[in-house]
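Re: beginner question about structure tokens

> Can someone show what the tokenized structure looks like for a real chain? I only ever see the sequence side.

Sure, here's an example I had lying around. Input first:
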Amino acid sequence: MKSTKLMSWFKPFFVLSIICGFALTATAQNYYPANVGNTWVLLSTDGAEQRTYTFEGPETIDGEEFILQNVAKETVGTDVVLFDKSWVTVAEDGEILLHQVAYDRGVFGIAEATWDPPVTNFPAALPLGQTWQIVTETVLQLVGAATTTTVLEVVAIEDVETPIGVFKDCVRVEISREAVTAVQILTEEEILWLAPDVGPVKFFDDTNSVTYELTSYNLVEPTVVEDIPVVEDTPVEEPPMTEETPVTEEEPVVEEGMMEEDMVEEPVVEEPVTEEPMVEEPMVPETFGFDLTLEPGLNMISIPLMPEEPYTAKSLAEMLTATLVIQLDTATQEFSAYTTLDEGDGFGIDGGMGYIVNTPAGGMVKFTGAAWNNQSEAADADHAPAAPTLSKNKNTWAFVVTSNIGGMEAGTGYTLVAENLRTGTIATENITSDVKRSAAVWADLNRKSVVEAGDRLEIALYDDRGNVVSGPFQRTVTTADIRNAFLSLQLNVGDVQPKDTILAQNFPNPFNPETWIPYQLSKPAEVSISIHNISGHLVRTLDLDLQPVGSYMTPSTAAYWDGKNAVGERVSSGIYFYTLQTADFAATRRMVILK
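And the corresponding structure tokens:
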């Protein structure tokens, strides 16, 4: 049996996950026949995914009859099926009214939305330019309250070619959504093509850049209820009444030799019952089990049960066989990550929070503990809820650059900067010298790719003055990196690969009595620094000899001047000039001594 899965963490907020309404137009054309038993199968152009739309029912809920629409998305060749459901009614004029939706989101719970009164899912007619919107309010454990506004517009009437033929005069409906949550504002774009008297023939998912085309469909003729002739009631003769023998109480039988006194029953005297005191047993929290299916690659999960011992990022990663765990601080809107290369336990794992985990192998994992979010025990493995798959082997929507940084100076702040040279997007993390490992995180909660195999990443470490103190280094992302969802490299302060030779400003400036003169070299060179007073007289020469390529920007690597001249005397206050000289480079800057 196939396991069920959520379509998208974004979709439960939205009524029209695929905008599968059931439209009856005011004319003879019916753009979405809503007869029970109708089925459409759409296959992605790459053959990897299939969508099956069905109408089922009718279902009676609280005394009212609804049509159930089930939309299933299947990854071809696997047992994973994603689904959503909605309940509608069809008005007399053909308008489709949406009453409620429900999405099984696995560990995230059931996402539900109800409209009272119902809202328009599809108008009765779909002329060019027709526009309508649906506003949805719901609550999810992962992100809390969410308000979603979905705007739909018929933008074109056009012919659509599919593998089974060309459909004429299809309406092209463009769908725009905006969801406002406590985490961030999310947007989504989709396009649905509906053929007259046929239904959905093509669908484009802009979030994942996937196009689906109709490969087969089956339309059931609506049931025609014929008039049943009215038959007049024929009187039914009742059977004749018969006289019944009256029932008399049975007289007691007196046996021979029995006296009347013997027939009198003696009263029964009940002995008092002494109740034993009740002993209350201690309350023991009920323990549940919860099976979670993880897809190979990135998954977004929440902890379904409260464990006896709280999870840490490390223990959760070990339990899931995950290479990394990412959390989002909703207050600061910053991501933090734990990888299997990190030392220590990492951050704590809380209930009611969403985490991104990367599980290269995927598989089933069982959580045990007390219920803290009304999750019930899975009936069996085939029906166990599954975490949404959020990555592929060639790209990923969450990626971490992690480094064990050496040589950091106490009291100095640093910033790790990683840039994707293909997209121009940058990930950063601010760190201090007491941090052994740092991580810069890319993550897009719309699940759009941020890093792909073959991307070139440029990584550098900056100090709190904005100087490059390690790097920049370039690394190419491999499929193995995508599988792990992180790339690791070693950074050491002072290990710099500058593109240009420069002379930086001395620090501190003004100074008394000493200062440091920073510089960087794009190639090995004999380096000397000469210091002149404002009159142009040479005060001191610092011979630094042959220096390799690198950045000399920190107090431990920069050129040092103690404020003395060539004979060891301290120079007077005033303006001085320092010049860095190599075989093919020279630059001069000004500095000030204040006493």
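Each token stands for a local structural state, so reading them left to right follows the chain. The chain has four domains: 3-218, 287-390, 403-478, 502-593.
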